[in-house]
TrEMBL record:
Residues 7-61 form the HTH cro/C1-type domain. It holds the Pfam family Peptidase_S24. The keyword Endoplasmic reticulum does not apply. Keywords: DNA-binding, Transcription, Transcription regulation. Gene3D superfamilies: lambda repressor-like DNA-binding domains, Umud Fragment, subunit A. One of its GO terms (molecular function) is DNA binding. This is Helix-turn-helix domain-containing protein. InterPro entries: Cro/C1-type_HTH (IPR001387), Lambda_DNA-bd_dom_sf (IPR010982), LexA-like (IPR039418), LexA/Signal_pep-like_sf (IPR036286), Peptidase_S24_S26A/B/C (IPR015927). CDD domains: HTH_XRE, S24_LexA-like. PANTHER family: HTH CRO_C1-TYPE DOMAIN-CONTAINING PROTEIN (PTHR40661:SF1), PTHR40661.
Length: 256
């Protein structure tokens, strides 16, 4: 990208018009237009002001490509939001960390699967060897202890995670992890001790059963419009307020 293209991209990412950037730099919109069209370039002092206004480093403009360890504009925005949440809502930061850990583990597993597929595709002998066993093959998924059908179970990080083998069927390929039910609020369909299979690849609609983290506790509940619903008539629903931190960790798609 040229200097002008980088400047335009950073300005748009920051939500500024040419005229607004010009006002902050005490210059004209025509000058900004000339810079973005590579007709001219700002001096180094002005460039330092631009970096401060658009929240980018000088290397963003001066290097031909952005190094892998250089933070992009959109990433900087995420960092600012995360710092704000950490300062004002520590429980929210814990929830974000939990989601990141889970998604990172999923990404790692997908990358390993991709590498294995590429390895098999380049090895005819390996492909021939595994074909007779496809019907009996299994895959490993993460197994967590546990989701509450009652008062809530703490579920953050990777503590207590095991590997669980499931048949490698087309239906099970959408399953991302398994989790054990604790409590009886979702009876008769989901009882204490049941292991449910959860997918993060399918949409969760109102009326579906999912795994939810509410203020750092995990629950298996039906997704309602204003509350998380228990199926056992003797159990209470979870009313969601604007002050609660809630994250959906996937849709329940079956039992183990």
């Amino acid at each position: 990208m040229t200097f002008g293209e980088k400047l335009k991209a950073a300005r748009i990412e920051s939500g500024l018009k040419q005229s607004e950037l010009a006002k902050k730099l005490n210059t004209t919109g025509n000058t900004i237009s000339n810079w973005e069209n590579n007709v001219s370039k700002p001096d180094l002092d002005t460039l330092s002001y631009i970096c401060g206004i658009l929240h980018v480093t000088a290397s963003y403009f001066l290097q031909a490509t952005i190094p892998e360890d250089e933070v992009s504009i959109s990433e900087l925005k995420l960092v600012k939001k995360y710092r704000y949440i950490t300062e004002h809502s520590p429980s929210g930061a814990k929830t974000i960390n939990a989601v990141l850990e889970n998604e990172y583990a999923i990404a790692e597993q997908l990358e390993k699967q991709k590498d294995r597929i590429e390895e098999l595709e380049t090895s005819q002998a390996a492909v021939i060897d595994i074909q007779p066993h496809l019907e009996d093959s299994t895959r490993l998924i993460e197994y967590h202890h546990s989701a509450s059908a009652g008062t809530g179970v703490f579920i953050l990080g990777s503590e207590g995670v095991e590997q669980l083998p499931i048949p490698n069927t087309p239906e099970n390929r959408k399953v991302d992890y398994a989790i054990k039910v604790s409590g009886n609020s979702m009876e008769p369909d989901y009882s204490d001790g049941d292991i449910v299979l959860v997918s993060q690849k399918v949409d969760l609609n109102h009326g579906d059963v999912g795994i939810f983290i509410v203020n750092n506790d995990a629950y298996i509940k039906e997704y309602g419009e204003t509350e998380l619903i228990s199926w056992n008539p003797d159990a209470d629903n979870i009313i969601i307020s604007e002050y609660d931190n809630i994250v959906c960790m996937g849709k329940v798609v079956g039992k183990y």
